[in-house]
Amino acid sequence: MKKTQKMSNNKLMLLSCVFLTCSSAHSQNCDAILWQGIHDEFRYNNESQLQADISKVLTMNREQREEYLKKNEGNISLGLLKILDLSLLWDNKDEGNKALKEYIKLEENFAWKSSEYTDFRLKLVNEKIVRAWKNCVDQAGISISAVGDPAQSFILNIRYNPKDDEVKDVKITSMNIVGGHFSEVGTLKPGALLKRFGGLSEIVNREGMEALGVVVEIDGRPSVTYSLEKITPEPEQIDTAITKSIDAFGGWKHLGGDRDMNTNSNDRVPVRCSSALVLQGERKVVLKVTFHCEEHGGDHTRFGSTREFLVYEAQQGQRILSGSAKGGLECSMTGGTVGRNHGYNSFSRPELDSSFWKTLRFRVDSKRSDDSDAVGVGGDLEFKVVTVAD
After folding, report:
1. Does residue 131 carry a pLDDT above 90?
2. pTM score over 0.70
3. What CA–CA distance (Å, rounded) separates 189 from 383?
4. 220-226 LR contacts (CB < 8 Å, sep 24+)
């Protein structure tokens, strides 16, 4: 049994800016937040690829987009699919969307510098990225940012991007931190001079998992703050490998003929068996087995039905997050016998090797005149479950 634990916070922290108005250079930093979010979610290698996809979609009419979706189903990248879906949703309803289409038709360079292009990208990314971008754009001039592991240590950067009428450097008067401590090896410290278009940095070591806050006081200016929320670990996940034996010989529904399969020297008896591992609620895994066999001659005696077997139940206080098995959670097999056969027979090795069954045998006849308690399947199956605490 293997245990794993994950932190919910991303390893790469986004730029967070506070106070004053954004300069052109700072706007580029804010734009980088937006691009990073798009890159991480949709795996674009560069922004030109994103722009090409937007241009492709917005220069199509509605009918062309719907036809493109149908024709290329299953072969469309995540980014292009999102753009197609959103464009169909917004069609003729969003003024910014219509304006961006017109810019693309007129001159694409206008389009990619427009606020409408920014709005379009903001609709592509998740709310966390939108909030980070808005914090950056709405408050600028003196900015504070961090890069590193938010759960342990990271570098805190502070930069001064002055407005045209700001000609003097500024001085750091004090620094306060809650939930961590400064390493005192960097340039960001009380008394340090923050030069125009320059920056200072310091390593912050986080203490535990509680919320963290930093306040930097600057002579003659509002303070600059940076904060991180309390780290909430994801529930501990427990991976468990399960091996289960199934004995389903007998108990199948009698479908026709007498109850004696009565195989003879030249008789063929086909057998079909399909099975699936199914999560039932949040605590149980059941095996659904469908079995069928039919006598070749005589009165065509038949047995078969679908039955369920409990193969796993989570412990009290645990719930099942997911399950997996070799070859997937469903499989179908066919087999059969020729001639008199009262014993047990295995399904073919290639079929078994590509399924969650380690062994699986079937039986179609016995020496008794009533085979109700003899026919069926049985074997050993293997699968894995991932459980977490409730």
Report:
1. no
2. no
3. 56
4. 220/170, 221/19, 221/142, 221/170, 222/19, 224/18, 224/19, 224/142, 224/143, 224/144, 224/158, 225/18, 225/144, 226/16, 226/18, 226/144, 226/145, 226/146, 226/156
